[in-house]
Design a protein that fits this description.
about 425 residues; alpha/beta; seven-stranded mixed sheet; five-stranded mixed sheet; 14 strands; globular
Length: about 425
């Protein structure tokens, strides 16, 4: 990553770079002054730690791969307690591994004089490189932690940078949710200066941070979340575009935002439909959503993958008698799939049903033509382990042990890499040089 050194005597033009979403997250952390970063590798999150590790070695940023996600969050939290801004990164399958620690940390809070602590989790809708497509947003509620979800590459950098300020102000860990189409897409990012302020860590052994005072800590967490919610109601990461009295409003987050804009443009109704983008996902910006949807007759929710926003919006629209005048469409109404990635075609289909529209779709062989083009240009190497991954040797040893003892075995656990052994490139099919 390029370091930006402003010239005080000359006004500098913005420095633009094409970055992956994960690189933009890493850049935002550097501009925020991160001093410690740890993670456990797993697609689509791996490039965050890789990018930080490739940063100038002379900078005072400690970067490491940890033995698992729980350890990554523990060491990062320790750095935060000592006054350093810290980041932990993992994929969606790894967040439950860290839950044992994060659930208690969220109730105890961060150190009063500590640094901000950001946990980045990258979900994998469609399960491109995962055994499942779990939605990490639900865990934010149990962590009593604010959750942010960027929609663009540029926003990923800005949101990461802001997340550290938010964490330090409220003394709470902050979750940033990325996803495959953001982490591995590229976009233009305006680079800001990297924070190089010297920070000396401190160790105050007179304090013990513990959630043992359960009732008091619980009450404090709820009070702080309420304060953050008020902040989110006014956040610039949430935005509305379209007519102020639109009868139909599309509420979206993450990749659903750009897909919705493309769908509206394709149908030619972008001037008649409102779009509410929510970047501060939890605590849910209740007042903002209620005000924005007050005049809408229909509301369509576009998100990946579970109906997280939709369930909260349902509560916003329901009155004391359990009724609501707005018609809510989304996953729970059957207009949007409960699984897989969001695409412009999915949004178009939902809009056509809601608005009773017809659309001249692309030819049926459109996707086949794209697939054939890709296969004619690209070489399919198949799925395999990352270079240096110990799984290959592990499976070779397991295979040898089973054959030596004439046993069969069922392997369970891990984050999904074990399943790669079922492919022809698996370790059990490879002749080890020592055999």
């Amino acid at each position: 990553m390029e370091t930006v050194r402003p010239n005080k005597t000359q006004k500098q033009s913005p420095v633009l770079r094409l970055l992956l979403g994960n690189e933009a997250i890493a850049r935002g952390a550097l501009e925020a002054g991160v001093r410690f970063a740890a993670g456990y590798p797993g697609t689509p999150s791996s490039e965050i730690i890789d990018s930080l590790a490739l940063f100038d070695k002379n900078e005072s940023v400690h970067v490491e791969w940890s033995i698992n996600e729980k350890v990554a969050t523990e060491v990062s939290a320790a750095a935060s307690f000592s006054g350093l801004r810290a980041l932990a990164a993992m994929k969606t399958a790894g967040l439950p591994v860290a839950t044992d620690f994060l659930l208690h940390l969220s109730l105890s809070g961060l150190a009063e004089k500590g640094g901000g602590f950001l946990v980045v989790v990258c979900d994998d809708p469609e399960g491109h490189s995962s055994g499942d497509e779990a939605d990490s947003r639900w865990l934010a509620r149990y962590f009593y932690a604010p959750l942010l979800e960027p929609c663009t590459i540029s926003e990923a950098k800005d949101m990461t940078k802001w997340a550290f300020d938010l964490s330090e102000e409220f003394k709470r860990l902050v979750l940033l949710r990325s996803y495959t189409r953001l982490s591995h897409a590229s976009g233009g990012v305006e680079l800001g200066p990297i924070n190089r302020l010297p920070i000396t860590p401190h160790f105050d052994t007179s304090l013990t941070y513990s959630p043992y005072l359960a009732k008091t800590k619980h009450a404090e967490s709820i009070r702080i979340l309420t304060q953050i919610q008020h902040r989110f109601n006014k956040s610039l990461f949430n935005s509305y575009q379209g007519p102020p009295d639109a009868e139909l409003v599309v509420v979206c987050s993450g990749s659903g935002y750009l897909c919705s804009l493309e769908a509206l443009e394709e149908l030619g109704i972008e001037d008649n439909v409102g779009v509410l983008k929510i970047g501060t996902v939890w605590p849910f910006p209740y007042d903002l959503v209620k005000k924005t949807l007050s005049k809408a007759k229909r509301v369509l929710v576009i998100e990946e993958t579970d109906p997280f926003l939709e369930s909260n919006i349902q509560g916003v629209l329901t009155d004391q008698n359990g009724q609501h005048s707005n018609k809510l469409y989304g996953k729970m109404s059957g207009h949007v799939p409960h699984y897989g990635e969001i695409t412009p075609e999915i949004v178009i289909s939902a809009l056509c049903e809601v608005q009773n529209l017809t659309w001249q779709s692309r030819p049926k062989n459109y996707k086949r033509d794209i697939k054939d083009l890709g296969e004619s240009v690209l070489i399919d190497r198949g799925m395999t382990w990352c270079p240096g991954c110990p799984h290959r040797a592990s499976f070779w040893l397991i295979d040898r042990a089973m054959k030596a003892t004439k046993r069969e075995a069922i392997l369970t656990g891990d984050i999904g890499c074990y399943t790669l052994d079922v492919f022809p490139e698996g370790a059990h099919m490879i002749k080890h040089p020592m055999s």
